[in-house]
Structure formats: structure tokens, C-alpha cells
Amino acid sequence: MLKEIVIAINSYFKAHRFIKEHRLWKWILVPGIIYAILFATSMYFFGQSANSVIQYFSDLIGIKDWLQKWENTWLGFLFTFTAIIFWMILMFFYFSLFKFMWLILGSPIFAFLSERTSAIIEGRDYPFSLRQFFSDMLRGVQVALRNSFWQTLYTVSILMCSFIPIIGWTAPILALFVECYYYGFSMLDYSCERRKMNVAASFEYVGRHKGLAIGNGIVFYLMHAVIIIGWILAPSYAVIAATISMHEQERK
After folding, report:
1. How does pLDDT run across 234-248, given as a tens digit for each residue?
2. 3 state SS of 185
3. 1 by DSSP, 3-state: which?
4. Which runs of consecutive H residues, i.e. helices, occur in the chain?
5. Closest residue by Cα to residue 163 from 87, 56, 70
6. 38-73 burial, b for 16+ CB within 10 Å, e for fewer?
7. pLDDT in tens, 109-147
8. Burial (Cβ within 10 Å: 0-12, 13-18, ≥19) of residue 153
């Protein structure tokens, strides 16, 4: 799996060269700017919501009064750190909902970029078909909804584990890997569909090549650390890198 993660990460560098060489910037920047605006707005409100949720549970359980009663520095640190972990998991959960909404809205662009990338790599044309275009789009929506269900189930389970002191501290890492896997899966599925795999076959393929999905998702999330520019480039780079990584894997 580690080898596949490396392939997926290197594919982002190849995607950058690919975009420059074939002048795909207009398909990158326009949807990217829309994504960046939606992302910044959503994360602001998500952050406020996460703070409100933590405050509600804190008041409901009476943690603040209990800590003042015991006056124990270690317990104060323990509960503060747990609250931070809980906040991080909530943000992952909120972002996963936003991410799948974007996958549904952006499925026409992602389907086109994946097909265009494959056409250039393979040196062949995929004739445009309106019927196929809508089929690809509906497939993207179907996969996004299915992944959203399973990821939400796993994330909620991890969220519950975050309440367990010390053991729960690993929860953000687990949540991140789940996020990366399911986002990378959605990016790889466009190539799976073009290879005439049904949704079940696509799940089986990505299940056998988890590293490609996780590696793709890892870089996608890391790009968000680069404010604005990373937000604009991340979605389209992810789908092109996923297409390239799948071609790389098939040549092995």
C-alpha cells in the first residue's frame, strides 16, 4: 500500500506538468475559485457550529463546575485536550459533508477532466456523448452519496471514541485517513467507470488499491494548508492526479 501512496502523491506533480503542457487552466481556475469561496464560507460557519456544540455538551454535563470543584491541573488539561480532539473530529465531519456536496455539484467538471486526461495519455479521442455525459454525472452523484453514508457512519463511530481519554487522542488521525480514502475513491471512480466497471466492481478495485485513494486524499487535504491558491487548485488537481495514478498503476 505504501508504494501506491507514493504513486498517488507523485501523480500530483505530474498533474501540474500535465495541466501546464496541455493548457487546462480554464478548467482548473473557474471551478476552483467557486470551490474556494464555498470552502472559506462553509468552514467559518462550521467552526462556529463546532464551538457551539462543544459548549452545549460542556454546559449539559457541567464539566466547568466539576473541574473548578476538584481544582486539578491534570484533569483540566485532559478535558481541554479532549475538547480540542472533539472539535477536530467535528470539523472533519462537517468538511466531509461539504466535500460530498461539492463532489455532487462538480461531477460534470470532474468527469470531463478525467476523460480529457485519459484521452491525452492514451492518445485517443473519447467522442462526446450527451447520454454518456449524464451517465457519468449520475454515477458521480451515486458514488458520492454512497461514500457519504459509509464515511458518516465511520466518522460518527470515531467521534464517539474521541471521548475516551488518551485512546481517543488518535481519533483525528483515524478520521483523516477515512476522509482521504473516501475522497480519493470518488476521484478514482471516474476512471473506473470509463473502464466499464459498475459501482460494485469499482469498490472492489479501489479496495484492492487503497493506497491510490489514500495518497490522493492526503495531498488534497495538504493543499488546503496553502490558503486560497491551494483551495483553488486542490479539487481539479485531485481528479487529474487520480487519473494519472491509475494509468501508472496499470503499467506496473
Report:
1. 989 999 999 999 888
2. helix
3. coil
4. 2-21, 25-61, 63-70, 73-105, 107-122, 130-161, 171-194, 199-208, 210-223, 229-251
5. 87
6. ebeebbeebeeebeeebeeebeeeebeeebeeeeee
7. 888 888 888 888 887 776 666 676 677 667 777 777 787
8. exposed
pLDDT of residue 71: 58
What is the C-alpha to C-alpha distance for residues 92 and 86, in angstroms, rounded to an integer? 10
Residue type at 204? E
Whose cell is 481541554? That residue is 80
C-alpha cell at 9: 502523491
Query: What are the pLDDT digits (tens) for 195-219?
Result: 778 888 888 888 889 899 999 999 9
Cell numbers standing for residue 216: 490522493
Residue 17 CB burial class (10 angstroms; 0-12, 13-18, ≥19): exposed
What are the sequence ranges of the domains in the chain?
A: 2-44+86-251
Q: How far apart are the first and last CA of the chain?
A: 14
- Scored b (16 or more CB within 10 A) or e, 167-191 reads ebeebbebbbbbbbbbbbbbbbbbb
For 11, 89, 116, 163, 213, the CA distances from 226, given in Å and listed in that order, are: 19, 21, 27, 31, 21
Number of CB atoms found within 10 A of residue 88's CB: 17
Burial letters 204-225, b for 16+ CB under 10 A, else e: ebbeebbbbbbbbbbbbbebee
Cell numbers for 231? 483551495
